[in-house]
């Protein structure tokens, strides 16, 4: 796409509660809005707690997270923002006229005059093996359990499973045992935790090594051919090693959220999120924060706080683009933007 792409007044990165409300409020402030979400669906962290009940959103009776997400999405679409799913933001470019271009990991470019980062704790991803050169095998036979693995790829194979010993590892082992010829489970923890994992096996040839961890991967080109595992002794490695010939390696160490390339943009970082001022502005011109991504002295870590952040960030973005603009949107009860919609509701 060339630089003739549409330039939006406001682009929001993140489709959780803060991002969704920012999309609505940006429309209320009569801005053209685009929302970009890394996942394939909207809702953010609330998707992980779909059945939990929320009590602390003002004026909203106790509601399941799944229903609250539906309401937030419906509200966000009020002014018909452009919504882009399945794109993880990677790079930021500045044009000569002061506008910005956000480049996603897939290479698509998005032009905007102002930007709100409502990225929560970051995009979820697998906890990767902390071994030099391990990434070169990811295109071939190093798999992470948080991503979908085609079972037929593992049929009849010798599989090394590096397990966290959690319930998800038990489920993963059961799936592997249905297709693999041999499975060796390597776990840093032993005892009852590993026992529960092995108990999930439906009878395939499964062996356990605990407490062990992968020390080295051996391969030719982009494929792993063997792995060296090493027994743990106290807080570190002991002397006992074993080399195992393998066809596939599956790592199930859980997931963690990270900001990835955003951390290199030059934002001021606090312990685990980014610093903002009272207007939710960052030290980068035209870039604002909302929700869990924002750190400021009066931060309220509730959904209600995220919604307030979103409105403040949109107001900050509006004033950045138009210093003569009002500090906030008019109350919806008297806004002409809702006149026709109110009549349609017949309330």
Q: Which features does this protein show?
A:
single chain, about 350 residues, alpha/beta, FAD/NAD(P)-binding domain, 2 domains, seven-stranded mixed β-sheet, five-stranded parallel β-sheet, 6 helices, elongated
Would you write up a description of this structure?
This protein is an alpha/beta fold. It folds into 2 domains: 7-122 and 259-345, FAD/NAD(P)-binding domain (3-Layer(bba) Sandwich); 127-249, FAD/NAD(P)-binding domain. The chain contains 6 helices and 21 strands. It has helices at residues 17-28, 65-76, 167-177, 191-199, 303-321, 339-345; strands at residues 7-13, 33-37, 53-54, 63-64, 82-85, 89-94, 100-104, 109-117, 123-126, 142-144, 158-163, 182-187, 206-209, 212-220, 223-233, 236-245, 248-252, 255-258, 274-275, 287-289, 294-295. The strands form 6 sheets. Strands 1, 2, 5, 6, 7, 8 and 20 form a 7-stranded mixed beta sheet that branches. Strand 6 and strand 7 (100-104) form a beta hairpin. Helix 1 packs across helix 5 (303-321). The radius of gyration is 24 Å and the shape is elongated. The two termini are 45 Å apart. The model has no long low-confidence stretch (mean pLDDT 88). Its cofactor is FAD. It comes from Cohnella fermenti. GO terms for molecular function: ferredoxin-NADP+ reductase activity; flavin adenine dinucleotide binding; NADP binding.
What name does the CATH topology of the largest domain carry? FAD/NAD(P)-binding domain
Number of contiguous helices: 6
Overall radius of gyration = 24 Å
The general outline is elongated
CATH architecture of the largest domain: 3-Layer(bba) Sandwich
Strand percentage: 25-35%
- Looking at CATH, the homologous superfamily of the largest domain is FAD/NAD(P)-binding domain
Mean pLDDT across all residues, rounded?
A: 88
| Elements, N to C (H/E) | EHEEEHEEEEEEEHEHEEEEEEEEEHH
Fraction of helical residues: 10-25%
Q: Determine and state the CATH class of the largest domain.
A: Alpha Beta
Q: Main sheet? A: 7 strands, mixed
Estimate nothing, just give the exact number of structural domains: 2
Oligomer: single chain
Family: Belongs to the ferredoxin--NADP reductase type 2 family.
GO molecular function: ferredoxin-NADP+ reductase activity; flavin adenine dinucleotide binding; NADP binding
Protein name: Ferredoxin--NADP reductase
Organism: Cohnella fermenti
């Amino acid at each position: 796409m060339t630089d003739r792409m549409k330039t939006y007044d406001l682009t929001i990165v993140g489709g959780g509660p803060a991002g969704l409300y920012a999309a609505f409020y940006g429309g209320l402030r009569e801005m053209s809005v685009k929302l970009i979400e890394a996942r394939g669906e909207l809702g953010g962290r609330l998707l992980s707690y779909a059945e939990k009940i929320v009590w602390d959103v003002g004026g909203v009776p106790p509601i399941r997270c799944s229903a609250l997400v539906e309401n937030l999405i419906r509200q966000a679409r009020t002014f018909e923002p452009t919504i882009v799913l399945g794109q993880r933001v990677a790079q930021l470019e500045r044009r000569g006229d002061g506008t910005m271009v956000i480049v996603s990991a897939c290479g698509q470019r998005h032009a905007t005059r102002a930007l709100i980062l409502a990225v929560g704790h970051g995009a979820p991803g697998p906890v990767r093996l902390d071994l030099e050169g391990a990434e070169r095998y990811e295109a071939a036979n190093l798999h992470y359990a948080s991503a979908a693995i085609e079972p037929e790829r593992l049929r009849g194979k010798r599989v090394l499973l590096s397990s966290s010993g959690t319930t998800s590892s038990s489920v993963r082992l059961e799936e592997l045992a249905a297709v693999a010829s041999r499975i060796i489970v390597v776990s840093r923890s032993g005892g009852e935790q590993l026992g529960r994992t092995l108990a999930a096996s439906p009878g395939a040839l499964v062996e356990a090594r605990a407490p062990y961890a992968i020390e080295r991967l051996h391969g030719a080109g982009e494929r792993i051919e063997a792995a060296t595992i090493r027994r743990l002794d106290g807080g570190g490695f002991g002397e006992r090693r074993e080399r195992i010939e393998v066809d596939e390696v599956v790592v199930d160490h859980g997931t963690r959220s990270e900001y990835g390339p955003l951390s290199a943009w030059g934002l001021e970082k606090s312990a685990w999120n980014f610093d903002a001022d009272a207007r939710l502005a960052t030290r980068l011109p035209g870039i604002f924060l909302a929700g869990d991504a924002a750190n400021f002295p009066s931060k309220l870590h509730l959904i209600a706080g995220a919604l307030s952040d979103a409105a403040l960030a949109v107001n900050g973005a509006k004033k950045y683009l138009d210093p003569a603009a009002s500090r906030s949107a008019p109350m919806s009860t008297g806004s002409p933007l809702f006149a026709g919609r109110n009549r349609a509701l017949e309330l």
